[in-house]
Design brief:
The protein has one domain. It contains three helices and two strands, in the order αβαβα. It has a two-stranded antiparallel sheet.
Length: about 80
């Protein structure tokens, strides 16, 4: 999935899918926040602040440290519907 805000190059999808196809990863996420130049590359300030706040709250509660609010994702069917 590539969010239609043009912040991610569609060419990034192929490498993510390749990582999924190896079977080592079930989910791959892209993070433009980690690059440190999100705002300079066109991310509106209100989205940046909202994103950082929501991520902080969502990571503190369960004790995790990852970014769920991303416009670049690839995942396998098994990740969505694990076989038990």
């Amino acid at each position: 999935m590539v969010h239609p805000d043009y912040q991610y190059a569609p060419a990034l999808v192929a490498p993510l899918v390749e990582m999924i196809k190896t079977g080592k990863y079930g989910l791959c996420l892209g993070f433009r926040i980690l690059s440190g130049d999100s705002i300079q590359n066109g991310m509106p300030m209100y989205k940046y602040i909202s994103n950082r706040f929501l991520t902080l709250v969502e990571n503190i509660l369960p004790g995790q440290n990852y970014q769920k609010h991303t416009g670049l994702r690839a995942y396998s069917k098994i990740t969505l519907f694990p076989i038990t």
